Amino acid sequence: MTDPSLPSNPSSGRVVASTPILAMTLRWGGLLTAALAVLGAVIGYFVAGADGSWSALAGVLTAAVFLGITAVSILIANRWFGDPLFVPIFFGIVLGGWLLKFVIFIVVLLVLRGQEWIVPPVFFVGLIAGIVASLAVDVIVMLRMRLPYVSDVTMPDEMTAPGAVTGPGDDSSPETSRSITKPPADS
User: What is the per-residue pLDDT across 94-141, written as a single tens digit (0 to 9) for each?
Assistant: First the structure.
C-alpha cells in the first residue's frame, strides 16, 4: 500500500531547502520595508505634505504585501513536504496566493483610484521603490545563502534499513558496489 519509510504527514521533520532562504527574505524584506516606509513618509511629506506622506506609505506597503504573499504561500505549502500529494498541494497553494494577489490588486486600485489624499506620482515612486528594494533583498539573500545543487532527495545509502549490512556481495539493490566501481584502466 504505502511505503512506511516515506513520511505521510505535513510535520515530517524534514525541511525543504528553500525554506530558510524564503524566511530570510521575509525577515530582511520586512526590515527594509519598515525603513523604506519611514523614509518614504518623510520624503512624501516634504514633497506634497501629509497627503504625500500617506501616498508614499500606501505605495511602499502595497508593494510589500504583494511581494510577501508569494513567499508566505510557498512557506505554507512547504509544510506538506514529504506528503504523497505534496506537488498538487504546493501548486494549489501557490496558485491560490497568486489569484489572491490579483484580486487584492484590483480591489486596491479601485479603492485608491478616487481617493483625494492619494498623490499619484508619490504613490508610484513609493510602489516602485518598494518593488526594487524587495528585488534587491531577493538577490542579496540568494547570493549569500548556500543552497546545494541537489537537495530534498534521499541518497541510496540513506534508503537502507538501519543496521542492515551492505557490502560487495549484496545484490539487494540495483546499484551495488560492483556496479559503481571504476572500469579497469586501459594499459
Answer: 899 989 989 988 998 899 888 899 999 999 999 999 989 988 888 888
The pLDDT tens digits for 36-93 are 999 999 999 999 999 999 999 999 999 898 888 888 898 899 888 888 888 899 999 9
Residues 6+ apart with CB under 8 A from 129: 36, 40, 59, 60, 63
Long-range contact set of residues 74-77: C-beta below 8 Å, sequence gap at least 24: 74/18, 74/22, 75/19, 75/22, 75/23, 75/26
Residues in the chain: 187
Cell 540495483 belongs to residue: 174
CA–CA separation, 155 and 123 (whole Å): 51
User: How far, in Å, CA of 165 to CA of 103, rounded?
Assistant: 57
Q: Residue 67's closest CA among 92, 97, 96, 91? A: 97
Grid coordinates belonging to 70: 508569494
